[in-house]
Amino acid sequence: MSEGIIQPDQPETLEGEGKDLFSKFDDIIALREGLLSSGQEDPFNLVMEKVLSPTRAICNGRETILLGTYNYMGMTFDPDVVEAGKQALADYGTGTTGSRVLNGTYQGHKECEQALKDFYGMDHAMVFSTGYQANLGIISTIAGKGDYIVLDIDSHASIWDGCAMGQAEVVPFKHNDIEAMEKRLKRIPEGAGKLVVLEGVYSMLGDVAPLKEMVAIAKKYGAMVLVDEAHSMGFIGENGRGVVEDTGVMDDVDFIIGTFSKSVGTVGGFCVSNHPKFEIMRLVCRPYVFTASLPPSVVATAEASIRKLMHGSNKRAHLWENSRSLHKGLKDLGFKLGTEEPQSAIIAVIMPDLEQGAQMWEALIQNGLYVNLARPPATPAGMTLLRCSLCAEHSEEEVGEILSIFEQSGRQVGII
Ligand SMILES: Cc1ncc(COP(=O)(O)O)c(C=O)c1O
Predict the structure, then answer these.
(1) How far apart are CA 369 and CA 239, in angstroms?
(2) 184 within some domain
(3) Is there a domain that residue 299 lies in?
(4) 305 and 383 share one domain
(5) Which of 2, 122, 274, 301 is the most exposed place for a label (fewest CB within 10 A)?
């Protein structure tokens, strides 16, 4: 190192060497090493060696009950859905090798969009390669410089990234706080473009948004409304259309965003809308235009699954039973939960801290149960959570087994 060249306030780097761009990750590297140094199984590196059904897999050599897949309606092994995928693979090949606006729109993409229009009873549907891209694309394209986006502080990363990409003014409000939302809307300059972004179910705590009140306020202030129904599609609402259906605001929202990676059981994302100019999005939305479209087998499975979800009322009823009995069982065992009552198919178990959360996660996996460990910054208020997502294919007996494993593991770790 050449002493004279480096000023005291400059980072210490060797001459001819830049700053290591990875240094910004040192804290998280240290946190992870600290956690794993005790021999703890890595909660973020689990391998599903064999998947036996929507609710069971072999993980780390053990048969494991799956309670962290977001496979709410259990469609991943539905025989009609699997068959549709196989047929499309045989008929159209493995991939489209192209963008939707060039060579990447096949008959299957249009049929999948028709299934979405039928499912929601809306005029337009646009399929993206993921739900992340649907939020990124729609939000960044409709709200740009000079426009305002009012959103819940606990919004999903894809929503925040869409806001950042579009460069609109971002005005967050406290989670699910109706008054705070109205205050923010009131302050936006007259005549400015306004978009309110909400989620039906918030995935960290599994709580629902008060959409009836919030959508009414958004409309009062002349804002457009986008609702992300990733965690409610297929399950919540009489026809599984989500919290918008359940709260009676279907006709008042401008855009519904969703994903195929949860209830639909495959991969992909979408936006449905009744806006008369919506189709122009296909030409101006960069995360739609500048990426390859979904493989034909994927859109075929999505279409088959969406059409079956329209008639899924028995499954929805069983999933509600599962949600209620798991919530009650965990509460009775003395666990602290994210919501007082079950509001969705997600039940969040609040851990005292990251260390005990990781220990509990490990005890659960060793006793044959997989849940998601969630920690800050992804979680609200710095919480460590064990997130449980139920499936309509979990039997009543399996829910009983899940509760026994929670009890055994909780006692082992000393949390209950
Ligand atoms: C609320 C919400 N929106 C969007 C997404 C993104 O969906 P996808 O997995 O299809 O990218 C997720 C996924 O976790 C989500 O939770």
Answers:
(1) 31
(2) yes
(3) yes
(4) no
(5) 2
Within 6 A (CB) of ligand 1 lie: 130-132, 135, 156, 158, 199, 203, 228, 230, 259, 261, 269
Tell me how far apart the terminal alpha carbons of the chain are, to the nearest angstrom.
56
Q: 230 C-alpha vs ligand 1 centroid, how far in Å?
A: 6
Atom number of ligand 1 nearest to Cα 203: 16
Q: Ligand 1 centroid to 413 CA: how many Å?
A: 32
Residue numbers of the domain that contains 225: 77-309
The predicted structure's pLDDT at residue 4: 36
Of 309, 342, 377, the one marking the end of a domain is 309
| Ligand 1 atom 10 nearest Cα | 131
Nearest CA to ligand 1 atom 3: 230
Residue 11 CA to ligand 1 centre (angstroms): 38
**Whether residue 64 sits in one domain with residue 110:** no
Domain with residue 161: its CATH number is 3.40.640.10
Identify the pLDDT of residue 131: 98
Asked whether residue 38 carries a pLDDT value surpassing 60, the answer given is yes
Task: Give the integer Cα–Cα distance in Å for 374 and 44.
Answer: 10
Boundary-marking domain end, from 309, 326, 358 = 309
Name the more confident of 343 and 34: 343
In terms of domains, do 267 and 330 share one? no
Q: Write the DSSP string, 365-408.
A: HHTTEE-EEE-TTSSGGG-EEEEEE--TT--HHHHHHHHHHHHH
Residue with tokens 């989500």: 242
In a domain, 10, yes or no: no
Which ligand 1 atom sits closest to the C-alpha of 155? 1
Distance 259 CA to ligand 1 centre (A): 6
Q: Residue 8 C-alpha to ligand 1 middle, in angstroms? A: 45
What tens digit of pLDDT does each residue of 66-84 get? 999 999 999 999 999 999 9
Strands 369-370 and 62-66: parallel
For residues 254 and 117, membership in a common domain is answered with yes
CATH at residue 320: 3.90.1150.10
* Alpha carbons 88 and 266: distance in angstroms, whole number: 14
Which residue is closest in CA terms to ligand 1's atom 8? 131
Q: Are residues 249 and 319 in the same domain?
A: no
| pTM for the structure as a whole | 0.94
